[in-house]
Specification:
With 424 residues, this protein is of the alpha+beta class. It has seven helices and ten strands. The strands form three sheets. Strands 5-7-8-9-10 form a five-stranded mixed β-sheet, with helices on both faces. A three-stranded mixed β-sheet has the order 1-3-4, with helices on one face. A two-stranded antiparallel ribbon has the order 2-6.
């Protein structure tokens, strides 16, 4: 309520505004009789407001110190007894404005180093406490026993801010886990897509390789046909050369026979005028024989020319188109091979890129998995801590329940006592 501004003029608990030397902490804690946990307020008006609030909200009783309305008792002068350490106020450090509250609680108390010194001081009318925590009142009352350090229950209960922070941290971790899970699912789907794409590309490459093999078989067949065609062309060219050589020989022979015929004709004319009929008959026979030979040579020459013409026609009409077609097929196949090689190279590069992307995605997936595991571990730690806090809260509630009942019972008893006093 003080932090929220509902109560003004409250300074806080005294033990949080002072510091005590560790050596004297036990002695001063016993000597304070619980007043170190008292609530220091500005004045009596604020104290009464706090009392009303405590009753209205059914809270546990608190000790209140109205700072402005305190009677400053000062500090007692320690007696001259061996073993006395000094006034209790000397072992407490605080701001000067809170010094009256310290003197109110410890102004009549001295601290001793031994039980004997504390006992002797109490016999002399002083309130004394030794370092073991045994308290000796001047009226002879002794408070002693096993000292148990006070447990600050509020320190066990986490603050509302801490609980809200834990809840926000758990919510943030849930958000991170969900985001990581979404990223992992996206990467999983992307990995599946890339794997399918890679399978399709590999299938495409396999199909292209099959096409290449088919083209290579066609190339082999076309090359075989080209070699066979070239052999046929070579044979025809050889026959053509031989025919031309034979044609030249027959031309030469025909030319010689013509010359011989001219010469015989001239001789015949000459002999016709000079020779007898018997010689003429003989020359006529020779002339007929020469004409026959010439006709035979003409016939053979004509046959050779016909054969050469047929060879040329065959070469031009059949072999030449086949040769050109084969060359065109070879050029087409070369272009197809180049195209297929380009597609194979492109597909191989794409497969490499897909492999790199798949590898990167797998690395990112592994990193996200590690991060998710870390976040899950952190979340489990927060949940364990949260469960521990809830268990402590339940335990404190169970512990406070009897105290609340006892407090209500005491309040009822006080009211009964007050009513009894009023009636009497």
């Amino acid at each position: 309520m003080v932090q929220d501004g509902a109560l003004l003029g409250v300074h806080g608990r005294l033990d949080r505004m002072v510091s005590v030397e560790q050596k004297y902490r036990r002695a001063l804690d016993v000597a304070s009789s619980g007043w170190l946990k008292a609530l220091v307020v500005q004045d009596t008006t604020v104290a009464l407001r706090c009392v009303e609030t405590l009753k209205t909200m059914h809270l546990h009783p608190l000790k209140l110190i109205p700072l402005a309305d305190l009677e400053d008792r000062g500090e007692i002068e320690p007696p001259k007894i061996e073993g006395i350490a000094g006034s209790a106020c000397n072992f407490i450090r605080c701001r000067e404005r809170f010094r009256p509250a310290v003197r109110f609680i410890f102004g009549d108390t001295i601290v001793t180093d031994s039980e004997k010194a504390a006992f002797l001081a109490s016999r002399s009318g002083y309130r004394a406490v030794d370092l073991k925590g045994d308290l000796y009142e001047p009226n002879g009352v002794i408070v002693a026993g096993f000292y148990r350090a006070p447990i600050e229950l509020l320190s066990l209960v986490p603050s509302r801010k801490a609980i809200i922070g834990l809840s926000e941290s758990v919510s943030a971790l849930d958000t991170i886990v969900n985001k990581r899970r979404e990223d992992a699912d996206y990467l999983e789907s992307e990995s599946s897509r890339l794997t399918e794409d890679r399978a399709r590309r590999e299938q495409l490459v396999s199909s292209i390789e099959g096409n290449i093999k088919s083209v290579e078989r066609n190339i082999g067949q076309v090359m075989e046909n080209a070699r066979s065609l070239n052999k046929r062309i070579a044979r025809f060219q050889e026959d053509l050369v031989k025919g031309e050589e034979a044609q030249n020989r027959f031309r030469m022979e025909l030319e010689e026979q013509r010359k011989k015929l001219i010469r015989v004709t001239q001789e015949r004319r000459s002999l016709r005028t000079q020779s007898s009929p018997e010689n003429l008959g003989q020359h006529e026979v020779e002339h007929i024989q020469l004409n026959t030979e010439i006709s035979d040579i003409h016939r053979r020459f004509t046959k050779i020319e016909t054969d050469l013409k047929n060879l040329e026609d065959t070469l031009l009409t059949r072999l030449q188109p086949d040769h050109e077609t084969t060359r065109m097929d070879l050029r087409t196949i070369d272009s197809q091979i180049s195209s297929f090689e380009g597609r194979v190279s492109k597909a191989s590069n794409m497969i490499k890129d897909l492999d790199r992307q798949l590898s990167d995605l797998n690395k990112a997936k592994d990193e996200i998995s590690v991060s998710m595991n870390s976040v899950k571990d952190t979340r489990r730690e927060f949940e364990v801590e949260f469960d521990m806090i809830e268990a402590q809260l339940r335990k404190l509630e169970q512990t406070n329940e009897p105290l609340n009942k006892e407090s209500r019972r005491l309040e009822l008893e006080v009211q009964v006592r007050k009513s009894e006093i009023g009636t009497s």
